[in-house]
Amino acid sequence: MAEMKRLVVLTGAGISAESGLATFRDPGGLWQRFRPQDLATPEAFARDPDLVLGWYDARRAQLAEVEPNPAHLALARLERDWPGDFLLVTQNVDDLHARAGSRRMVQMHGALKRVRCTACDARHDWQAALPRATPCPACGAARLRPDIVWFGEMPLEMPRIMAALEAADIFVAIGTSGTVYPAAGFVRMLPRHARSIEVNLEASAVADGFDELRQGPAGTLVPALVEQLLCAA
Ligand code: APR
Prior knowledge:
Blueprint: E1 7-11, H1 14-17, H2 30-33, H3 36-39, H4 42-47, H5 49-62, H6 70-81, E2 86-90, H7 96-100, E3 105-107, E4 110-117, E5 123-125, E6 144-148, H8 158-166, E7 170-174, E8 195-200, E9 212-215, H9 218-232
Parallel strand pairs: 1-2, 1-7, 2-3, 7-8, 8-9
Antiparallel strand pairs: 4-5, 4-6
The structure holds adenosine-5-diphosphoribose (APR).
């Protein structure tokens, strides 16, 4: 793999599972307990803003109780020590990659610890609860919402992501079910020569698009994969 220098990593909720954050579609996952259309759509927010704000407040508060796990830390090491281009694209809205030290990262579905003003479009880092009618620190309008990409909304930084995929030599997808687009389609956007590896407890819905499946927990398999990639770089 020595000549392969451009690496793109995609992560999903499964990488944070061993940190104690619920995934969406596993048994007991968030979409087993709540209906996405009641919580993660613009219509839900318009219909019942207090319910939606309360749900994101609870998920944001939970971040104080969890820590990055060895998989997050291994990806931060990979970014630091990888000799070529590196981009981490995460679907996750938790802060565990950032707390593990990842920097060259795109949070394509937004971030729990950020809010956005729908009046002036300013984004603000946000640690606490977000009661309805909280004034925007920039323009004062009471139009703040979670800076989360809801179903039916455009993911963030897609041009940057597409450019990285089209030039990738290696693509690694970790802990994602391959059921939500556009992320589920990333593996089919790679150059023909690229090598693709999936790390998951079980084969994802797009496993047939990958060269290889490493089946097992990310907390164990990702540090080993990082070691192997760095040794071969
Ligand atoms: N190690 C590796 N993989 C794991 C682990 C683990 N410890 N635990 C769970 N997984 C895998 C599951 O097998 C599953 O394939 O993680 C995946 C989690 O899938 P989802 O719950 O569907 O999460 P994700 O793929 O990130 O969802 C994508 O859907 O609801 C939207 O915006 C939300 O970003 C989310 C998107």
